[in-house]
Amino acid sequence: MIEKTLLSEFQRVLGRENVFHEEADRLSYSYDAAVLDQVLPALALRPLSSEALGQAIRLCNENSLPLTVRGAGTNLSGGTIPNEGGVVILTTALNRIVEINEGDLYAIVQPGVVTAKFAAEVEAKGLFYPPDPGSQAVSTIGGNVAENAGGLRGLRYGVTRDYVMGLEFFDSNGELVKAGARTVKCVTGYNLGGLLVGSEGTLGVFNRIILKLIPMPAAKKAMMAIFDDVPKASETVAAIIANRIVPVTLEFMDNFTIRAVEDFSHVGLPTDAAALLLIEVDGHPVQVADDALRVEELCRRMGAMEVRVAETAQERDKVWEARRAALSALSRIRPTTVLEDATVPRSKIPEMIAGIEGIARKFDLKIGTFGHAGDGNLHPTILTDRRNAEEWARVEHAIDSIFEKALELGGTLSGEHGIGTAKSRFLEKEVGRGTIAYSRRIKAALDPKNILNPGKIIGG
């Protein structure tokens, strides 16, 4: 419960209309996209300016109030679920694209800018911002940076951290900290920006973000390779990379996912296929033509029944609309959808897909598998009903097994969704006790009152 005097102070700083204390309002910010229990915050705050944001953080620190920053709430690991009695700071009003610099190829944005809107604004100027998380239509740049979000184009272009040139953020005292620069090179001081990217709101609160832009590729070509056998498809992924071809995207969909997507979007996917690979190459037109031909020939050699090459932009867009519909399509089938993102070295994709199939059989569960196979980042999606206690117990065992398989193959717990609270109990298995202790010492030094998204990633 927030004391009346503190509530009044928040209202003075932010404006009464930007301080949400009624239970019905707070309920909207008690959960995110992860399948975890809701936690009702004591207060939700919506600053309209940088000054108000800094003052809100200062007040939280002075009163030892845990705070969680929230953009669109699309987090899949519990990173934006607040602490009991804590405060949620909403960035939705901090949504201005401050600058798009066409000469020096950078942009400056506030954290609440929607990713797809930003990418479209950049593209309108003939430039390109590659990171494209599946939630980009609603997710915000601040959330993308906090989670180091990836996306379909990560194979060729990398992830969010590869485009963060600099940051302004508030520390736990509400003091403004600057890291990085607008310049291509910057080695001034500690790499604080590198520390903050992927920190899930546990070390600071973003105020402004400087992002690298690149020229738009001159040409693109997309294709769909159709397989009657899952191992053939997964082995083709490894073969493409082994042949020194790096597509923009190299996506995998199993039969269960194919049928769900086709039923949902009616885009003409072959529902009798055991698996699909959705592939795109880009760059100089001559290079694109050569790479596309090599990929097509390789797919056929590896056992593809058919390779459909998109001849128009409309056909190409249709392919990617189908892939982006995968989660929405699967989530219609059962009441609860558990989307994971365990990631393995690319050469281990065949073993990981086989492992997921075995886990589905062992625990008698429906698991649709799709994802960024080209960079080893699969999304096994468990369809279940959390209200069924017996089935949910099997789901939890299956999740444990998926993580164990990924680590056994030299992989990682998360390729792009983050650790949050959903995966924190597994972290020691991957990084070891010493790494967690070291991280906790950093956290304690930078946030002595532990108000910044406490309990996330490293627990405590």
**Count of all domains:** 4
- In CATH, the architecture of the largest domain is 3-Layer(aba) Sandwich
Number of strands: 18
What is the overall pLDDT average? 95
Distance linking N and C termini: 22 Å
CATH superfamily of the largest domain: FAD-linked oxidases, C-terminal domain
The structure class reads: alpha+beta
Question: Can you describe this structure?
Answer:
The chain is an alpha+beta fold and 460 residues long. The protein has four domains: 4-90, Uridine Diphospho-n-acetylenolpyruvylglucosamine Reductase, domain 2, CATH 3.30.43.10; 97-215, Uridine Diphospho-n-acetylenolpyruvylglucosamine Reductase, domain 3, CATH 3.30.465.10; 219-408, 3-Layer(aba) Sandwich (Vanillyl-alcohol Oxidase, Chain A, domain 3), CATH 3.40.462.10; 423-460. It has 16 helices and 18 strands. The protein has helices at residues 4-14, 23-27, 50-62, 115-123, 141-147, 154-157, 192-196, 230-242, 255-265, 285-301, 313-324, 326-331, 349-362, 389-408, 427-431, 433-446; strands at residues 19-20, 43-45, 67-70, 87-90, 97-101, 106-109, 127-128, 164-170, 176-180, 205-212, 214-215, 219-227, 249-254, 275-283, 306-309, 336-339, 366-372, 377-384. It has a seven-stranded antiparallel beta sheet with strand order 15-12-14-13-17-18-16, with helices on both faces. β5 and β6 (106-109) form a beta hairpin. α1 (4-14) packs antiparallel against α3 (50-62). The chain is globular. The two termini are 22 Å apart. The mean pLDDT is 95.
